[in-house]
Here is the input.
Amino acid sequence: MSMQSQINKELKAFQKFMSEYAFEPKEIMTQNDVQMCDNMPIYGDDGKIIPVCEKWLNTGFTISNASSKVLSNLFPYSFVFKSQKLESIEAGIQSLKFPDPEMQKYVFKYSGITAFHVQATSAYNWKETGIVYWQGQAINRFSKEYDDFIDELYISAAQNPLYRSALLKVDKPIIHSIGKTDKTDTLLTRFELEKRLNGLSAFYKDYTREHSRQLQANLSWRPISTPSPINQLKDKSR
Here is the structure.
Protein backbone atom coordinates (compact mmCIF):
# COMPACT_ATOMS: atom_id res chain seq x y z
CA MET A 1 0.00 0.00 0.00
CA SER A 2 1.37 3.43 -0.94
CA MET A 3 1.84 6.14 1.68
CA GLN A 4 -1.02 8.23 0.27
CA SER A 5 -3.32 5.20 0.22
CA GLN A 6 -2.48 4.56 3.88
CA ILE A 7 -3.15 8.22 4.72
CA ASN A 8 -6.51 8.09 2.90
CA LYS A 9 -7.46 4.92 4.75
CA GLU A 10 -6.57 6.34 8.16
CA LEU A 11 -8.15 9.70 7.35
CA LYS A 12 -11.48 8.07 6.51
CA ALA A 13 -11.34 5.97 9.70
CA PHE A 14 -10.31 9.00 11.79
CA GLN A 15 -13.15 11.19 10.52
CA LYS A 16 -15.65 8.43 11.21
CA PHE A 17 -14.17 8.04 14.70
CA MET A 18 -14.39 11.79 15.31
CA SER A 19 -18.03 11.91 14.22
CA GLU A 20 -18.79 9.76 17.28
CA TYR A 21 -16.09 11.13 19.59
CA ALA A 22 -17.44 12.94 22.63
CA PHE A 23 -15.06 15.79 23.46
CA GLU A 24 -15.62 18.33 26.19
CA PRO A 25 -12.99 21.11 26.23
CA LYS A 26 -11.72 22.06 29.64
CA GLU A 27 -12.63 25.61 30.57
CA ILE A 28 -9.88 28.00 31.59
CA MET A 29 -10.99 30.67 34.05
CA THR A 30 -9.47 33.18 36.42
CA GLN A 31 -10.06 32.75 40.12
CA ASN A 32 -8.56 35.30 42.52
CA ASP A 33 -6.21 36.50 39.76
CA VAL A 34 -5.04 32.91 39.16
CA GLN A 35 -5.65 31.13 35.84
CA MET A 36 -7.22 27.74 36.51
CA CYS A 37 -8.14 24.73 34.43
CA ASP A 38 -10.24 21.99 35.99
CA ASN A 39 -9.52 23.52 39.42
CA MET A 40 -5.76 23.28 38.84
CA PRO A 41 -3.49 26.34 38.39
CA ILE A 42 -2.02 26.94 34.92
CA TYR A 43 1.02 28.83 36.26
CA GLY A 44 3.33 27.96 39.14
CA ASP A 45 4.62 30.29 41.83
CA ASP A 46 7.64 30.99 39.60
CA GLY A 47 5.35 32.41 36.90
CA LYS A 48 6.06 29.57 34.49
CA ILE A 49 3.43 27.36 32.88
CA ILE A 50 2.83 24.12 34.75
CA PRO A 51 3.33 21.41 32.10
CA VAL A 52 1.43 18.55 33.70
CA CYS A 53 -0.74 17.79 36.69
CA GLU A 54 -3.06 14.98 37.76
CA LYS A 55 -5.84 16.25 35.49
CA TRP A 56 -4.16 17.34 32.24
CA LEU A 57 -1.04 17.72 30.09
CA ASN A 58 -0.39 21.23 28.79
CA THR A 59 1.20 21.18 25.35
CA GLY A 60 3.49 23.90 24.00
CA PHE A 61 6.92 24.08 22.40
CA THR A 62 8.27 26.54 24.97
CA ILE A 63 7.01 24.57 27.98
CA SER A 64 9.79 22.89 29.98
CA ASN A 65 8.53 19.34 29.61
CA ALA A 66 9.40 16.72 27.01
CA SER A 67 5.84 15.47 26.45
CA SER A 68 4.56 19.05 26.17
CA LYS A 69 7.13 19.80 23.47
CA VAL A 70 6.78 16.66 21.34
CA LEU A 71 3.00 17.12 21.08
CA SER A 72 3.43 20.72 19.90
CA ASN A 73 2.80 21.65 16.26
CA LEU A 74 6.20 23.31 16.30
CA PHE A 75 8.17 20.14 17.05
CA PRO A 76 10.39 19.03 14.10
CA TYR A 77 8.62 16.01 12.62
CA SER A 78 9.39 15.35 8.95
CA PHE A 79 6.53 13.98 6.87
CA VAL A 80 4.95 14.14 3.43
CA PHE A 81 1.66 15.98 2.98
CA LYS A 82 -0.04 16.18 -0.41
CA SER A 83 3.25 15.31 -2.13
CA GLN A 84 5.15 18.06 -0.27
CA LYS A 85 7.78 17.37 2.38
CA LEU A 86 7.16 19.33 5.58
CA GLU A 87 9.45 19.68 8.59
CA SER A 88 6.65 20.33 11.10
CA ILE A 89 2.88 20.60 11.38
CA GLU A 90 3.34 24.30 12.10
CA ALA A 91 5.07 24.73 8.74
CA GLY A 92 1.97 23.37 7.02
CA ILE A 93 -0.33 25.71 8.92
CA GLN A 94 1.79 28.85 8.53
CA SER A 95 2.34 28.16 4.83
CA LEU A 96 -1.38 28.72 4.25
CA LYS A 97 -0.78 32.44 4.77
CA PHE A 98 1.29 32.58 1.57
CA PRO A 99 -0.75 32.77 -1.69
CA ASP A 100 2.40 32.29 -3.83
CA PRO A 101 3.06 28.51 -4.20
CA GLU A 102 6.81 29.01 -4.53
CA MET A 103 7.05 31.19 -1.44
CA GLN A 104 4.94 28.64 0.36
CA LYS A 105 7.50 25.93 -0.36
CA TYR A 106 10.14 27.87 1.55
CA VAL A 107 7.93 27.75 4.65
CA PHE A 108 7.73 23.94 4.48
CA LYS A 109 11.36 23.75 5.60
CA TYR A 110 10.84 25.29 9.04
CA SER A 111 9.98 24.01 12.51
CA GLY A 112 9.98 25.36 16.04
CA ILE A 113 9.50 29.04 16.83
CA THR A 114 10.96 29.91 13.42
CA ALA A 115 8.05 28.17 11.70
CA PHE A 116 5.65 30.31 13.72
CA HIS A 117 7.45 33.62 13.13
CA VAL A 118 7.96 33.12 9.39
CA GLN A 119 4.37 34.35 8.90
CA ALA A 120 5.73 37.87 9.40
CA THR A 121 7.33 37.68 5.94
CA SER A 122 3.96 37.34 4.16
CA ALA A 123 2.38 40.48 2.73
CA TYR A 124 -1.01 38.77 2.59
CA ASN A 125 -3.44 39.14 5.50
CA TRP A 126 -5.83 36.17 5.49
CA LYS A 127 -7.88 37.73 8.31
CA GLU A 128 -9.25 40.35 5.89
CA THR A 129 -10.81 37.74 3.59
CA GLY A 130 -10.97 34.48 5.57
CA ILE A 131 -9.25 32.82 2.60
CA VAL A 132 -6.02 30.81 2.86
CA TYR A 133 -4.05 29.07 0.11
CA TRP A 134 -2.54 25.68 -0.55
CA GLN A 135 -0.29 25.54 -3.63
CA GLY A 136 -2.40 28.16 -5.39
CA GLN A 137 -5.77 26.74 -4.34
CA ALA A 138 -8.00 29.07 -2.29
CA ILE A 139 -9.63 27.56 0.81
CA ASN A 140 -12.21 29.22 3.06
CA ARG A 141 -10.89 29.00 6.62
CA PHE A 142 -14.45 28.57 7.92
CA SER A 143 -15.43 25.71 5.60
CA LYS A 144 -15.64 21.93 5.90
CA GLU A 145 -13.01 21.82 3.16
CA TYR A 146 -10.61 23.55 5.54
CA ASP A 147 -11.45 21.19 8.40
CA ASP A 148 -10.85 18.18 6.14
CA PHE A 149 -7.56 19.73 5.00
CA ILE A 150 -6.35 20.08 8.60
CA ASP A 151 -7.47 16.54 9.41
CA GLU A 152 -5.35 15.22 6.54
CA LEU A 153 -2.40 17.35 7.68
CA TYR A 154 -2.44 15.67 11.10
CA ILE A 155 -3.00 12.16 9.73
CA SER A 156 -0.06 12.73 7.37
CA ALA A 157 2.09 13.87 10.30
CA ALA A 158 1.07 10.73 12.20
CA GLN A 159 2.81 8.63 9.53
CA ASN A 160 5.99 9.78 11.27
CA PRO A 161 6.48 6.99 13.85
CA LEU A 162 7.85 9.36 16.49
CA TYR A 163 4.78 11.61 16.36
CA ARG A 164 2.47 8.62 16.44
CA SER A 165 4.35 7.24 19.44
CA ALA A 166 3.92 10.57 21.23
CA LEU A 167 0.16 10.41 20.61
CA LEU A 168 0.00 6.82 21.84
CA LYS A 169 2.03 7.47 24.97
CA VAL A 170 0.02 10.39 26.37
CA ASP A 171 -2.17 9.26 29.27
CA LYS A 172 -3.91 12.50 30.28
CA PRO A 173 -6.32 14.92 28.60
CA ILE A 174 -4.34 17.37 26.47
CA ILE A 175 -4.82 21.13 26.81
CA HIS A 176 -3.18 24.10 25.08
CA SER A 177 -3.71 26.92 27.54
CA ILE A 178 -1.97 29.65 25.50
CA GLY A 179 -4.04 29.05 22.37
CA LYS A 180 -6.43 31.65 20.96
CA THR A 181 -10.17 30.96 20.96
CA ASP A 182 -11.47 33.11 18.06
CA LYS A 183 -11.50 31.48 14.59
CA THR A 184 -11.22 34.89 12.93
CA ASP A 185 -7.89 35.47 14.67
CA THR A 186 -6.07 32.15 14.21
CA LEU A 187 -5.92 29.21 11.81
CA LEU A 188 -6.20 26.77 14.71
CA THR A 189 -8.01 27.69 17.90
CA ARG A 190 -7.25 26.17 21.27
CA PHE A 191 -10.42 24.10 21.05
CA GLU A 192 -9.71 22.89 17.50
CA LEU A 193 -6.20 21.83 18.50
CA GLU A 194 -7.24 20.17 21.74
CA LYS A 195 -10.06 18.24 20.08
CA ARG A 196 -7.74 16.96 17.33
CA LEU A 197 -4.89 16.01 19.65
CA ASN A 198 -7.15 14.22 22.12
CA GLY A 199 -9.05 12.64 19.25
CA LEU A 200 -5.87 11.50 17.51
CA SER A 201 -4.55 9.97 20.72
CA ALA A 202 -7.79 8.06 21.32
CA PHE A 203 -8.11 7.09 17.65
CA TYR A 204 -4.61 5.65 17.29
CA LYS A 205 -4.88 3.74 20.54
CA ASP A 206 -8.08 2.16 19.22
CA TYR A 207 -6.62 1.75 15.72
CA THR A 208 -3.49 0.06 17.08
CA ARG A 209 -5.51 -2.35 19.23
CA GLU A 210 -7.71 -3.29 16.26
CA HIS A 211 -4.66 -3.77 14.03
CA SER A 212 -3.09 -6.04 16.68
CA ARG A 213 -6.29 -8.09 16.94
CA GLN A 214 -6.40 -8.55 13.18
CA LEU A 215 -2.74 -9.53 13.10
CA GLN A 216 -3.27 -12.09 15.85
CA ALA A 217 -6.29 -13.48 14.01
CA ASN A 218 -4.24 -13.87 10.84
CA LEU A 219 -1.50 -15.68 12.76
CA SER A 220 -3.86 -17.90 14.74
CA TRP A 221 -4.08 -20.62 12.07
CA ARG A 222 -1.84 -23.68 12.38
CA PRO A 223 -0.62 -25.87 9.53
CA ILE A 224 -1.87 -29.44 9.41
CA SER A 225 0.86 -31.66 10.85
CA THR A 226 2.17 -34.44 8.66
CA PRO A 227 4.20 -37.39 9.89
CA SER A 228 7.89 -37.18 9.24
CA PRO A 229 9.57 -39.76 6.95
CA ILE A 230 11.33 -41.26 10.00
CA ASN A 231 8.05 -41.78 11.82
CA GLN A 232 6.54 -43.28 8.68
CA LEU A 233 9.41 -45.82 8.52
CA LYS A 234 8.91 -46.66 12.20
CA ASP A 235 5.21 -47.25 11.59
CA LYS A 236 5.95 -49.59 8.67
CA SER A 237 8.53 -51.60 10.68
CA ARG A 238 6.01 -52.41 13.42
